[in-house]
Design goal:
Elements: H1 16-31, H2 39-65, H3 79-82, H4 89-105, H5 116-123, H6 134-144, H7 152-172, H8 183-193, E1 201-203, H9 210-222, H10 226-233, E2 236-240, H11 243-255, E3 262-265, H12 273-278, E4 283-286, H13 296-299, H14 311-324, E5 329-335, H15 336-340, H16 344-355, E6 356-363, E7 377-384, E8 390-395, H17 417-423, E9 437-441, H18 442-447, H19 468-497
Parallel strand pairs: 1-2, 1-4, 2-3, 4-5, 6-8
Antiparallel strand pairs: 5-7, 6-7, 8-9
Helix pairs in contact: 1-6, 2-7, 2-11, 4-6, 8-9, 14-16
């Protein structure tokens, strides 16, 4: 296989220390601008500029390797063109706001998934320049010009640093409900689902793309031929409702070598269940929003008796629909309320265990999603096909001497080693009960109204040793669930009266 040619760089590879210095100085410049208030303003501004910087390098390299490739951004709108002059101050602001950004928003491609023009137009549909000073913007552009994405070493270095910036972005957004999924959990879920070259992997609530990047790296490591590598590139799909996470995801993909992801900025729940079944995928890895609510128009996409405003239940139905035709598999993060809900949730879980094999429930310990929420979380692993007679539960333990995870002492990937060893490979052979693992007959789950909120029988639930904040959060979640059940009962009574 002939290795691809790369553009000859005019700059030496950027050391990690130098790159960090460039980004630090870039952020210092942005702090001086009156239009940017806090990281939730600064990081998006940095993200779209870095995206254009990286895109320019990626497209130039693709032109070298494919003479027929047509760049999405050409002429004076390319980064390498509009940044090389001495334009600054009001002239730069005028160009960016009245010419560059409108041009990028109005790009039109073929309409096929992954078309770079459509992707760029979609990304910049909701992007605005937030800086007020054209002089500071020129300084910022000059700093970012020092990053040389033509150097492979720079791309890997920038990817590492960018991930830390993404985490800061998600940390800053935590108060608005954007929960950061820890990388160790993302990696473990991906390893257990084990997507392969040639399969299509989807995250319908992709956020900044963490699951899809991990799935891409996992599949690429298993690819041994050029054909398989091409299949891996074509096997990434995702949707994200909000514009800024979508932009951050696209930057994330570029830096990790995913140059043709079939991703869209849209609500994954906006299609009908029938359309979702028709448009299936092989595997889904996702952490859908907790506690969100959807409008009636979205609810109408779901069957009678399965409609609800609660986002997590709609996502679970959507995931099942996407995996039906392809007989696929899934790992999905859910809050505790999903386990014990017996209203709409009970019906969804009944449908799940009718058409799918719910083989493993991973119970996560305190603080995995700290500092965003203390509500206990879980991961459901299931695959299309007959439900087995038993459902396995595995309680992931906290490290010895710890009462919970914190922002400064987060979850680590090596902590999943025992669970991975117990898992039993892709056929899950040889599993046995331990102090952390137990199995429950499906008949018991059915008789309980599909209650999956089952605690470890090998360990007493000693409330005196559980953090008060966690107990309060769990009580609040229980009260919310009771209110939802009462509201659902009220609707059913009204329907019956009609």
């Amino acid at each position: 296989m002939t290795p691809p040619r790369t553009k000859k760089s005019t700059q030496p590879p950027t050391t990690r220390a130098r790159l960090q210095s460039v980004i630090k100085e870039s952020r210092n410049i942005m702090r001086k601008d009156a239009g940017l208030n806090g990281e939730l303003d600064r990081l998006p501004q940095l993200a779209w500029l870095l995206f254009l910087r990286a895109l320019d390098e990626v497209e130039e390299e693709r032109q070298i390797n494919d003479p027929d490739y047509v760049p999405a951004v050409v002429g004076r709108y390319r980064w390498s063109e509009w940044t090389k002059g001495d334009r600054t101050g009001s002239a730069l602001l005028t160009f960016v706001e009245e010419q560059l950004l409108p041009h990028l928003r109005e790009l039109r491609g073929s309409g096929r998934a992954g078309d770079p023009k459509d992707t760029v137009a979609q990304i910049f549909k909701h992007v605005d320049n937030r800086m007020h000073s054209g002089y500071l913007l020129a300084d910022l552009v000059g700093q970012l010009g020092k990053v040389d994405f033509a150097n492979t070493d720079d791309i890997h270095t920038m990817a590492h640093l960018y991930e830390s910036m993404l985490k800061e972005m998600r940390d800053a957004a935590g108060d608005s409900g954007e929960f950061y999924t820890p990388r160790p959990l993302v990696r473990f879920m991906t390893e257990m689902v084990d997507p392969q070259p040639g399969e299509v992997v989807m995250d319908p609530a992709m956020g900044t793309g963490g699951f899809l990047v991990e799935a891409f790296d996992h599949m690429r490591a298993a690819a041994t031929t050029a054909k398989q590598l091409e299949a891996v590139q074509l096997g990434i799909r995702g949707t994200e409702k909000k514009s800024m996470p979508h932009l951050l995801a696209q930057m994330n993909f570029l830096l990790h070598g995913i140059d043709r992801p079939a991703v869209a900025q849209t609500n994954a729940l906006s299609s009908s269940i029938a359309d979702m079944r028709h448009d299936g995928v092989d595997a889904i890895l996702t952490n859908p929003p907790f506690g969100g609510e959807e409008e009636k128009g979205i609810q109408d996409n779901f069957p009678s008796g399965m409609k609800t405003a609660e986002t997590v239940w709609l996502f679970l139905q959507a995931v099942m629909a996407r995996l039906t035709k392809t007989k696929g598999r899934c790992a999905i993060v859910v809050p505790n309320s999903v386990l014990f809900d017996q209203g709409i949730g009970g019906r969804v879980k009944k449908a799940l265990m009718k058409d799918f094999n719910l083989h493993t429930v991973l119970r996560l310990p305190n603080g995995v999603f700290a500092p965003y929420t203390l509500i206990p979380s879980n991961v459901l692993f299931f695959e299309h096909g007959p439900q087995q007679e038993q459902v396995w539960f595995y309680e992931h333990p906290l490290p010895e001497g710890r009462k919970n995870y914190t922002k400064t002492k987060p979850l680590a990937h090596d902590e999943f080693a025992d669970c991975a060893a117990w898992w039993g490979g892709q056929d899950r052979e040889g599993r046995r009960e331990t102090t952390q693992a137990w199995q429950v007959p499906v008949t018991d789950i059915v008789e309980s109204g599909y209650n999956l909120d089952l605690r470890n029988p090998h360990r007493p639930d000693d409330l005196s040793h559980r953090p008060p904040a966690e107990l309060i959060a769990e009580l609040i979640e229980t009260e919310r669930e009771m209110l939802t059940l009462l509201e659902q009962l009220e609707l059913e009574i009204k329907d019956f009266a009609k």
